[in-house]
Specification:
The complex is a heterodimer of chains A (317) and B (1066).
Chain A lengths: L1 H9 L1 H5 L3 H11 L2 H7 L5 H12 L5 H4 L8 H13 L5 H7 L5 H13 L5 H13 L3 H11 L21 E6 L5 E5 L21 E3 L14 E10 L9 E6 L5 E6 L2 E6 L10 E4 L9 E10 L10 E6 L1
Antiparallel strand pairs in A: 1-10, 2-3, 2-4, 4-9, 5-8, 5-10, 6-7, 6-9
Chain B lengths: L3 E3 L15 E6 L18 E2 L4 E5 L3 E6 L12 E2 L12 E9 L9 E6 L16 E9 L2 E9 L4 E5 L3 E2 L6 E7 L4 E6 L2 E7 L14 E2 L12 E10 L10 E4 L5 E3 L6 E7 L9 E7 L2 E7 L7 E7 L7 E9 L2 E10 L8 E3 L5 H7 L3 E4 L4 H7 L12 H13 L2 E6 L1 H8 L25 H18 L5 E8 L11 H11 L26 E2 L4 H13 L2 H12 L8 E5 L16 E2 L2 E2 L7 H13 L6 E2 L1 E4 L1 E3 L18 H5 L5 E3 L2 H12 L6 E4 L20 H20 L9 E5 L1 H7 L10 H11 L4 E5 H7 L6 E4 L5 E2 H12 L3 E4 L11 E2 L9 H19 L8 E2 L4 E8 L2 E8 L2 E2 L13 E2 L2 E8 L3 E4 L4 E3 L2 E3 L2 E8 L4 E7 L5 E6 L4 E2 L4 E9 L11 E9 L10 E6 L2 E7 L7 E9 L5 E8 L1
Parallel strand pairs in B: 19-25, 26-27, 26-38, 27-28, 28-29, 29-31, 30-42, 31-32, 32-34, 33-35, 35-38, 39-40, 39-41, 41-43, 43-44, 57-63
Antiparallel strand pairs in B: 1-23, 2-17, 3-6, 4-5, 5-17, 6-16, 7-13, 7-17, 8-9, 8-16, 9-10, 10-11, 10-12, 13-14, 14-15, 18-20, 20-23, 21-22, 21-24, 24-25, 36-37, 45-50, 46-47, 47-55, 48-49, 50-54, 51-52, 51-55, 53-54, 56-58, 58-61, 59-60, 59-62, 62-63
Classes of the chains: A alpha+beta (317), B alpha+beta (1066).
Chain lengths: 317, 1066
């Protein structure tokens, strides 16, 4: 009580201002610590947020920011956390704790900060893995998932190899079946955590849809992640070849591909990639005269989506 | 009349007598054996489809074709088969009589007379360039140009005559000949009416098609409609169709503005003979007046062109001009037309028949004028009339000038190169130098850049003398599928810009996700010299080659110095938010679709202004798509299977791929465009505006759309257009940052589609009653943020240091930052508006976004006084400002689901009535510029409140002046009497009487009606802008004007005030 009285005495300009604009103008003009600390509880949101911003800009206010993480105003909590991060005063434990905040915008700051440093290891990895599995909000989950996304492969196709000075010919072109691909939406970005890419994963409960058509054509009015799986038979091993590739005429819009449980590469050009054909090398992964399992994870952010054009297995010489 | 005799060029033939002509086909349709060949070569014909042999008064019997309708198999004419005789070894000729039937006036625009070619239009493949054909092209009522098209295997040539009159039910004799050496001649009623030499040509290429008389070989829709008689075919050229000395007026420009300087037409004297043409006198007769020009002798085979000046003081009308030289004579007509009033372009982005253009009030349509193969081959600018027949285009441009229409060229030389040229250097390649699987060429290549200039300069040389050719679309949609490319010249250019190697992280044109980068700053503030960002800045500005190419084409088109000519590029903001799109074009434009919320048209329009800020004096136009995708409005897969459950258009055209925009959307979109200082508006999708025959995926599915557009153009754009062009934008105090750094590091951005969160944030601001201005990172760096009180930052994940610093300064001086949860963590916002993801339920989304708008307004109201207010969010406002006058646009965006597409829940397409109040701070007088009347106001809260009411989708424009508009006056210089041929200055003023008569600092729309002695509108009649309340014009009394009393009426379109005076012409 005594503390508040001292503050009241020290901040006459702020307290006597009548309108929110006057109060805010006074804060901007004076920026004294006492006024700011009072103003973070102002009835007007803009005044409160201006106060926390001004507080955050002060060198001497780190200790005053921490209590604001418990403010009833989520934007105050968010701004306080932002400020602590900028001042390098947000520990992993603090950030982990803020991941329990009820407000998604606070959690977004926390998860972004946790994901910012690479590689993700230790406690941060633990928190992010938990977030990727259990977080309710898609944006928060997405940042966590991307931060710990384990799949990346950079393969250079035969025709792009700078040491390959021969014509590359397709000597065998096998069109993968268009019908009856197993298909599942992955609205929560959990597929890879649930091993949907594994060869022996049981996808019998999934729907079936054709490729060479969008998933909207099959009745899924949906933007987001989805997975396709298909088992197909290959012919006997050709006598002579230099490489084998999976050739996608196009997917809408990004793809991550596994063959027989092995990650073989991605087509991730963002929104611009939806009409760009691509190929992925499977020379080592393909099994001849046998059943092969192809798994494709697709991200579509707008409009139609899916493997909307045919997929080929191409034997190259 | 001054005269100039100019020998332009002379063509000397090697003496080559024409071979004797042998008749290889003669079809007289005589009554006993009407299908037999009378030439003795047994080329008996077969009648096709509905063609008949009929009795005829003049020839006893004739071949009659009745034309076709698209729904019936109505082949016409006669088939003479594909005999070797019909493949001339060199020279050949046809002649015949023809008589059009009345029905031809309702037919399509081309009518085949002779065909052994099929392809009368340009195609590069071989089968389109074999054989020959002759056809008519409609050029007006009973007016046709006669076209002869010859194929030479790799290309074709066309001779098109000037329009000639072929009245219905009247027989005329036509003939054409080709000498096997490049010269084509066309004769009508025994007179040669056109001749053209196509250099380095020999025999036409043999064609595999049958010879068809009176129709096109494979088409059911191109037959001549009428009768043909006495058709003859010759190998060799009969003497009467061979060389003759002639004089003829050129087929160049024949329409001139009243009082135009240096108007002239060209008389061509062609001594197509073996003897010298002696000295003589050329007599020119115009409007009864004769002028004589001395003529110096002309050598055999020499051609001389004589410039004949045209006196343009004549009254607007058509005039006959005759020329005689010895026994030779030539006739032609020219037209004087009134000078154009200022107008706002309304462009049909596509080609459109004249009647449709006029019905809507379109001022322009798109036309092709280039010739890429020849310019590419020449490697320099060409006069295209030397390599192709340009008569068709000249005829079109003359006609457009007569009708007050304009042609806008569409050109795409970059596209042509990528589609036709195989040089590997012209292809985009991967880092390893392998060609990319894309059709988007490496247009930064110097050869292509130079070609771009040459194409522009060639078109300029060839067509710039036509005022009706005043604009050009330079490429379209080329950057959508641009790709990173690593040709050596591109890598060199990038490295020169960067001062280092291209970063390895660069893989896609859309940037590098910051989440994938190790050690990306947690604050997400990056240095301005960040190499990855600089690479993408280079790529999107210059590196992909398109912007520099646009500049080169623009430079070429401007090479003749014509100042009123404007170039444009679209869709100019379908790229990340960085300056430079379109290069140096005069105008950047963009097309967008109006669904689900039509005020989004304003959002992409504001993006264009942000883009245009980057190049001095670049302006903005905006297009609204007439077409709607089914998928976004009425998905075909959700259409009821039972026909009785479908709405009418679904029953009529169930497979329509693209449907018509709903009329209320169209109207809201139109007002959203003109509420901003655009230089013109555009529409695309003729097939969804008019019922078009032939295959098209665009379908006219809403019969109310077309008349609504016509009404809006005639009632709003035409009266207010001249004024709208003079009224600048009002300064906005609310900025929306579209961050290039964020787009490149977080793959966000609207890319001109107006369906992203950035666009929705802009729409929220519109509904909240703000006037948002979109700014780019570069705008912030150039201008700072001092002009704004509120900065809105949707999807601003990443900022450069300089932009961040400006934001800190902005906040420090009290600016309010409104942002979403994605904001760069270094910036602490004053208000958070979480990003909204649309649900594809139009009512839910609109309600949610309007609720966000209401919240935002409540939060900001204590700190920010809006420039205008409306009593409900569905009355969307926007302001412009001139002098001390405000212009407030109000648009009724109140909508619900209708029964056009509303049943699908994706679009609320049906506008509703709406009423409420509007408020402006301060005082003054308010006028409704559409209703032309003053508005009653009530003082309220330090401003003016006034009632407004709207019909569905309706927009209104209110003008608020400081002083009342009291009177409109006309002052005619002199004593009210003007002799013919004189100039009479007039001044129209809109005055206020407050504190004495003074002129308000306003742009006031004015209608001027100037009636001649016969009560017909004279030059300058129409709509004008009184800038600073004053309009000054110089009336030019035609030298042949009828004496009498002219009436001049001026109408103030703000308050309906009218004044009238007279002028006596002596």
């Amino acid at each position: 009580m005594k503390h508040i009285l001292l503050l009241l005495l020290a901040a006459p300009l702020f307290l006597f201002a009548q309108t929110p604009k006057e109060r805010r103008d006074n804060l901007l003009k004076n920026q004294d610590l006492q006024s700011l600390l009072i103003a973070v509880n102002d009835e007007n949101a803009v005044v409160r947020h201006t106060a926390v911003r001004l507080l955050a800009q002060r060198e001497d206010a780190t200790t005053q920011l921490t209590p604001l993480l418990k403010s009833t105003d989520p934007l105050i909590r968010r701004c306080a956390l932002q400020a602590l991060c900028l001042k390098n005063a947000a520990t992993v434990d603090l950030l982990g704790g803020m991941m329990a905040d009820e407000d998604v915008n606070v959690r977004l700051i926390a998860v972004s900060q946790l994901a910012a440093e690479k590689p993700v290891t230790g406690k941060r990895l633990e928190i992010l893995e938990k977030t990727a599995r259990h977080e309710k909000n898609a944006a928060v989950r997405d940042i966590a998932s991307k931060a710990i996304w384990p799949f990346y492969r950079n393969t250079i196709l035969l025709r792009n190899r700078s040491d390959w000075d021969h014509d590359v010919k397709v000597i065998q072109d096998i069109l993968l079946p268009k019908e009856d691909w197993r298909f599942s939406l992955d609205e929560n970005n959990q597929g890879h955590l649930n091993n949907w890419f594994k060869k022996d994963f049981d996808a019998s409960a999934w729907k079936t849809i054709p490729i060479a058509a969008t998933w909207e054509d099959a009745g899924f009015q949906y933007d987001g992640l989805a997975w396709y799986r298909k088992t197909f038979k290959t012919p006997p091993k050709p006598e002579k070849y230099n490489a084998v590739e999976l050739h996608f005429e196009s997917v809408d819009e990004c793809a991550w591909v596994w063959l027989n449980g092995v990650y073989i590469g991605q087509h991730d050009l963002g929104t611009s990639g939806w009409q760009t054909p691509f190929s992925l090398d499977i020379t080592k992964e393909v099994k001849w005269d046998a059943e092969n399992v192809i798994v494709v994870r697709i991200l579509d952010t707008a409009g139609a989506g899916g493997i909307y054009k045919p997929v080929h297995l191409q034997v190259l010489e | 009349m001054k005269q100039a005799l100019v020998t332009i060029f002379a063509v000397l033939f090697l003496s080559s007598a024409l071979p004797a002509a042998d008749m290889f086909g003669q079809w007289l349709f005589n009554s006993e054996k009407p299908l037999e060949d009378a030439s003795g070569h047994n080329h008996t014909i077969k009648l096709r489809g509905k063609a008949q042999i009929v009795e005829d008064e003049r020839f006893g019997i004739a071949l009659k074709s009745t034309g076709s309708v698209p729904t019936a198999d109505n082949a016409q004419g006669a088939d003479a088969g594909n005999h070797a005789d019909f493949t001339p070894k060199g020279a050949f000729a046809f002649d015949f009589w023809l008589k059009p039937d009345e029905a031809i006036r309702a037919g399509r625009d081309h009518f085949f007379l002779i065909d052994k070619k099929i392809y009368h239009y340009f195609r590069e493949f071989e089968k389109a360039n074999l054989g020959y054909c002759c056809y008519l092209l409609t050029r007006g009522k009973d007016l046709y140009s006669i076209n002869v098209n010859l194929g030479f295997k790799t290309d074709s040539v066309v001779l098109e005559t000037r329009p000639v009159s072929l009245p219905v039910n009247e027989w005329h004799h036509l003939a054409f000949s080709y000498d096997g050496e490049g010269t084509v001649r066309v004769f009508m009623d025994g007179q040669m009416i056109a001749k053209k030499l196509f250099a380095n040509r020999k025999a036409v290429a043999p064609s595999p098609y049958a010879l068809i008389l009176g129709d096109r070989a494979t088409s059911n829709y191109s037959s001549f409609i009428g009768r043909m008689a006495q058709i003859r075919y010759f190998q060799g050229v009969p003497a009467e169709y061979g060389p003759h000395p002639t004089i003829s007026f050129s087929q160049g420009r024949t329409v001139f503005y009243h009082n135009e300087k240096n108007a002239a037409i060209t008389l061509t004297i062609d001594n197509d003979n073996t003897e010298i043409m002696d000295d003589g006198i050329v007599t020119i007769t115009v409007n009864g007046a004769k002028h004589e020009l001395p003529f110096k002798k002309l050598a055999p085979r020499e051609i001389r062109q004589v410039t004949v000046p045209i006196g343009t003081t004549l009254k607007a009308a058509s005039y006959q001009i005759d020329a005689t030289l010895n026994t030779l004579n030539a006739k032609s007509t020219f037209d004087i037309v009134p000078r154009e009033n200022p107008f706002m372009p309304v462009v049909m982005w596509g080609t459109c028949p004249e009647n449709e253009l006029t019905y809507i009030g379109f001022t322009h349509d798109l036309r092709h004028f280039s010739n890429f193969p020849n310019v590419w081959k020449a490697k320099k600018p060409l006069d295209l009339s030397t390599v192709m027949d340009v008569t068709s285009n000249y005829n079109l441009l003359n006609n457009y000038m007569k009708k007050g229409l304009h042609a806008c060229m569409t050109t795409a030389p970059g596209r042509w190169v990528e589609q036709t040229q195989t040089n590997p250097e012209y292809k985009r390649v991967t880092r390893n130098g392998k060609p990319r699987e894309t059709t988007n060429g490496a247009v930064g290549h110097p050869d292509i850049q130079e070609f771009g200039y040459n194409v522009g300069a060639s078109v300029a040389q060839t067509y710039m003398q036509f005022p009706s050719f005043d604009s050009a679309l330079i490429h379209s949609e080329v950057r959508d599928n641009t790709m990173l490319s690593f040709q050596p010249f591109e890598v060199k250019s990038a490295e020169a810009f960067l001062g280092t190697k291209i970063p390895q992280e660069v893989r896609a044109k859309t940037g590098v996700p910051y989440l994938t980068l190790p050690n990306f700053p947690p604050s997400r503030v990056i240095p301005d010299d960040d190499t990855i960002l600089r690479f993408y800045t280079w790529f999107w500005k210059d590196g992909d080659g398109w912007n520099p190419l646009h500049s080169r084409i623009h430079d070429g088109l401007k090479s003749t110095g014509r100042k009123d000519f404007w170039t444009f590029f679209d869709p100019a903001v379908r790229v990340p938010s960085v300056w430079g799109s379109g290069g140096h074009v005069d105008i950047v434009s963009q097309w967008t679709y109006s669904y689900p919320d039509p005020i989004k048209i304003g959002q992409s329009c504001d993006e264009l202004f942000a883009m245009a800020e980057g190049y001095p004096n670049q302006k903005v136009m905006k297009m609204t798509q007439i077409i709607w995708y089914r998928s976004g409005t009425a998905p075909i897969e959700r259409m009821p299977k039972e026909e009785d459950k479908r709405v009418q258009w679904e029953r009529d055209i169930p497979d329509a791929k693209f449907i018509s925009i709903a009329p209320d959307h169209l109207e809201i979109a139109l007002w959203s465009m003109i509420a901003r200082p655009v230089r013109g508006i555009m529409y695309h999708g003729r097939g969804s505006l008019f019922t078009v025959t032939g295959g098209t995926s665009y379908r006219m599915t809403n019969p109310e759309t077309t008349p609504r557009l016509s009404k809006l153009v005639h009632n709003v754009i035409q009266p207010l257009g001249p004024s709208l062009l003079e009224i600048p934008d009002a300064k906005s105090r609310v900025a929306v940052l579209e961050s290039f750094a964020s787009q490149m590091y977080a793959q966000c951005g609207s890319n001109g589609w107006s369906n992203s969160w950035e666009a929705d944030m802009h729409i929220i601001l519109q509904w909240a009653g703000y006037q948002p201005q979109i700014i780019y990172d570069e705008t912030v760096r150039k201008n700072g943020l001092d002009a704004y009180d509120i900065l809105v930052m949707p999807n601003c994940y990443v900022l450069t240091q300089s932009v961040y610093d400006e934001i800190l300064k902005f906040q420090k001086r009290g600016g309010i930052v409104v942002a979403d949860e994605r904001l760069c963590p270094a910036v602490l916002p004053d208000l958070l508006v979480p990003a909204y993801k649309r649900t594809r339920k139009a009512d839910v989304d609109k309600a949610a976004l309007q609720a966000m708008a209401a919240n935002l307004r409540n939060e900001l109201d204590p700190f920010f006084k809006r420039d205008f207010q409306t009593s409900n969010m569905d009355i969307v406002g926007r302001m412009r400002h001139f002098g001390d006058t405000d212009y407030l646009f109000l648009i009724n965006d109140k909508r619900t689901y209708g029964n056009y597409v509303g049943q699908y829940g994706l679009v609320m397409e049906k506008g509703l009535d709406n009423a409420g109040t509007a408020w402006l701070p301060g005082d003054g007088y308010i006028y409704d510029l559409v209703a032309h009347k003053q508005v009653q106001t009530t003082p309220k809260d330090g401003g003016l409140s006034f009632d407004v009411s709207f019909g569905p989708g309706e927009g209104k424009l209110f003008m608020r002046t400081k002083m009342p508009l009291d009177a409109i006056s006309i002052n005619v210089d002199g004593d009210g009497i003007a002799p013919r041929g004189s100039e009479v200055p007039i001044t129209v003023q809109v005055e206020t009487a407050q504190n004495g008569p003074i002129l308000p600092k306003a742009v006031v729309p004015v209608k001027l009606t100037i009636l001649d002695a016969d009560g017909k509108p004279a030059e300058f009649s129409g709509y004008h802008a009184a800038v600073n309340s004053e309009l000054k014009l110089n009336l030019s009394i035609p030298s042949n004007e009828k004496p009498g009393k002219w009436t001049i009426i001026a109408e103030n379109l703000a308050n309906g005030g009218k004044v009238q005076t007279t002028l006596t012409i002596k």
